[in-house]
Structure formats: C-alpha cells, structure tokens
C-alpha cells in the first residue's frame, strides 16, 4: 500500500514539475481538455437549469392533471380539417363528469378569455390575464392565499361578482398600505368585490405568473361571453385521486364523454385528453436531445484535448528516458513505471478539467446575477461528471505513452538519455 502512495506522490510531483517547467507547452496541451470539459458541463448545467425552471413553472399542477378540450398539447394523427370541426367542451359535460366520474379528487370548468383592464379609483392595470374557473380550481392548482379566501362552489355556480387578485395586481391597484380584500374593483364595466389576494409567486419562464392573474367565477364569464363564443375556448380540468391507474382512468374518462356525446364505436374522439405528464415527458425528451447534441459537439474538443495530453506524455517520456533507465536499473518494475506515467496523465487532465469547471462556475454566477428570474445551477452531479470525464480522458490519453515507458530497456534507456 505504501508503494502505491509513493507512486501517487511522485507522479503528482512530476505532473506539477511538468506544468512549472513547460508552462506554454502544458497550457496549449491542456487547453483542449479545459474547453471540452467547459463545453460539456456548461451544456449540462444550462439544460438542467432550463429544465428545472420549466418544471418549476408547472409544479403547482400535478403531473396527473388532465385537461379536456378540442385542442391537443402535442402532435396528433388527426388531420387539421377534422380537428377544426371538433366542438368545444360544454358546462353540461363538466357537470356530467363531475357527477359520474369516480376516483376523482376534483374537476372544474375553465374558460380561456381575453385580457382585460381592471380599475380601482383612479388606478388601472391593463392587459390583465383572467382565470374564469370553478371553485375546484383552487385545489387543483394548489393556489396559496396571502389574504382572504377563494370563492366557494355556491358563488361559482351562481356567478357572484367576487374576485381574487394576483399579488402584483393587488399591489398596483392598492399599494402595500391598503388591504385589497373588501374593496370593489371594476371589470367588464361591472363592480367585483375583492375576497382574496394570492401569495407572491415570482415570474416564470413560461410567461406571466399567477402574480398577474385575477380569478373570477366561471359563470360570470359565461354570462358575459355566452356558451358559443369562438373568441374563447373552454376546458374541463380533472385531477384523479392519488394511486389511480392512469391509463384506466383516462380510458374511463373518455368513455364517459363519448357516451354523453353519442359517438359510435367507429368514431374517433372529437376531443383531446391532454395530460401534463405527457408535457413533462416531452420536456424530458427535448432536454435529453439537447444534452446529447451538446456532448457530441463537446466530444470533439475533448478529442483534441486527449491528443494534447498524449503528446505531452510522449514528450515527457522522451525527456525522462535516462531517469526511467536509472529507475529500472535500481529495481523499479514495469508496473511502477506504468502507474507513474498513467497517474501523471490523469493529474494533468484533472487540472485541465478543474479549470474548465471553474470557468463554468464563474459564468454561472455572472449569468444568475444578470438574469433575475433565471437561476443558473451547477449541480454536484455535473461536477462529478466533469471530473470523471477529465480523469477518463487522462487515462485513455496516457495509456500508450505509459506502456512505451514501462517497456524501455534500462541499458538502452540510460544510453539514449546520455
């Protein structure tokens, strides 16, 4: 065990001496490894950060949540002309599913309506996103209230003029000194009583966060827009109970809606059951492809870096031929020489990798400080990958020079060195 520790110590010293004595040569040789590791870890860190941000934007909704509407989240085999003939989901269908679907935690009806201007006194906020939903949406999306409450089922069904404000909307209208709840705001030319304010969420990569949304009972919007208005499109949002078999639940859901619509067994579904899980799987697929492409491109830099390490090791063997001959004449075994040069190659590669990781870390700090709403993360897993790849490149690049050094004849090595 002591002999191997000695090998490690001596090899590390040789590697450091190589850096000190041949700074320019070593720098140029390690530049490829540094760029390669920098490229790989930068791509992995960027994609991981992007994936974390996107999924964080969807975290309020459970991945099992199902959204039924006449549009599809992703690609579909149904031709466009046929999709354009699909009817919108109706409030009656929502009531039917709510009454008949078992193993359902919550189901609600939602209208996607146009943005509007909301006013209070002399203040107004333009282009406000409106969430016209049933009361169940509060549980489905796990909304969090800073003040007040969300509207209940009776208020949603009767279309009571009540409203829940996003944090940013409440601040713009009332400021921080005045409590928004209990006040009346004007929307659609009508007065709405503020009954709740949502907690601050922060901005999202996928668009505006809930800070800029207001929620009103869906039947208020239905009275304003009507049930056949093509400027809006409705959705039925369903959240199954935990532990329910996903495929069986969707099949049962589709069957209930098919029967209600009177579709024949040979007819295709004239609606789409979109699931957030499919969207997150799509994100995973995209990020996986980005990682793969980034690693392929970075691999060329590592290939150049590997040749650089091999080159510096061949030169090192040539310069230390006399020393190798003396070591072998004093009893050093081939294995000792082999491990010595292998470890030196690995140390050199790791040094290049550490520089690459340091550059990624510096850039991640700069990127995070410049982009307030995006957190660039350099994870421990990516650091481990970077160091492992560096060590592997050093091992592969140093194996042939190390073998050639270990096989030198001691007499010829001493004579050549002289």
From TrEMBL:
Its main location: membrane. It is a multi-pass membrane protein. The chain crosses the membrane at residues 27-47, 292-315, 336-363, 383-405. Residues 26-255 form the MacB-like periplasmic core domain. Residues 295-410 form the ABC3 transporter permease C-terminal domain. It is found in: Cell membrane. Pfam families: FtsX, MacB_PCD. Keywords: Cell membrane, Membrane, Transmembrane, Transmembrane helix. The keyword Cell membrane applies. The keyword Nucleotidyltransferase does not apply. It comes from the Bacteria. Belongs to the ABC-4 integral membrane protein family. This is ABC transporter permease. It comes from Mesonia profundi.
